[in-house]
């Protein structure tokens, strides 16, 4: 499903694409992106820790719904908290079906795998691009 495209090969009509993941965003895209860490953290802090996992997707959708269509978001680190025990990309692709947005990736791209965090740490995750309905832009 997922694929990698070079930034200069990205079609003029981004609407034709599913969730875009910018692995190396140019400054103009990075500068226009909306940081969601603080927005999500404020919502999560209102809940008991035991309730956060079951509500994180709803809270994320509320944040996305508050943004203009096809916004670019960055600083998604709060989503990778190991206590939440969620498949972050499953949640992102599901949310993107409701309302289009793009992401600036907080990790690195290693061949056909998106990597978040450092190996050996609890927040470390690897995501095979082919397993998700995403387009990685390099």
Descriptive account of the structure:
Helix 2 crosses helix 3. By secondary structure, this protein is an alpha/beta fold. It has helices at residues 27-32, 37-45, 49-65, 88-98; strands at residues 3-5, 19-22, 34-35, 71-74, 101-104, 108-110, 113-116, 125-128, 134-137. The strands form two sheets. Strands 1-9-2-5-4-3 form a six-stranded parallel beta sheet. The radius of gyration is 15 Å and the shape is globular. Helices cover 31% and strands 23% of the residues. It has one domain.
Number of domains: 1
Rg (CA only) = 15 Å
Distance between the termini: 17 Å
Beta content comes to 15-25%
What's the total helix number?
4
Low-confidence stretches: none
Q: What overall form do the CA principal axes indicate?
A: globular
**How many runs of DSSP E, i.e. beta strands?**
9
> Main beta sheet: strand number and arrangement?
6 strands, parallel
List the helices and strands and how they pair.
Blueprint: E1 3-5, E2 19-22, H1 27-32, E3 34-35, H2 37-45, H3 49-65, E4 71-74, H4 88-98, E5 101-104, E6 108-110, E7 113-116, E8 125-128, E9 134-137
Parallel strand pairs: 1-9, 2-5, 2-9, 3-4, 4-5
Antiparallel strand pairs: 6-7, 7-8
Key descriptive features of the protein:
138 residues; alpha/beta; three-stranded antiparallel β-sheet; 4 helices
């Amino acid at each position: 499903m997922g694929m990698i495209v070079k930034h200069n090969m990205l079609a003029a009509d981004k609407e034709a694409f599913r969730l875009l993941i910018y692995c190396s965003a140019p400054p103009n895209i990075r500068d226009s992106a909306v940081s969601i860490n603080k927005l999500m953290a404020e919502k999560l802090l209102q809940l008991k820790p035991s309730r956060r996992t079951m509500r994180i997707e709803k809270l994320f959708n509320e944040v996305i719904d508050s943004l203009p269509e096809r916004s670019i978001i960055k600083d998604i680190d709060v989503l990778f908290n190991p206590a939440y025990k969620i498949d972050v990309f499953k949640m992102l692709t599901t949310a993107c079906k409701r309302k289009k947005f793009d992401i600036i990736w907080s990790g690195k791209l290693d061949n056909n795998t998106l990597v978040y965090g450092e190996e050996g740490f609890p927040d470390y995750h690897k995501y095979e691009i082919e397993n998700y309905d995403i387009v990685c832009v390099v």
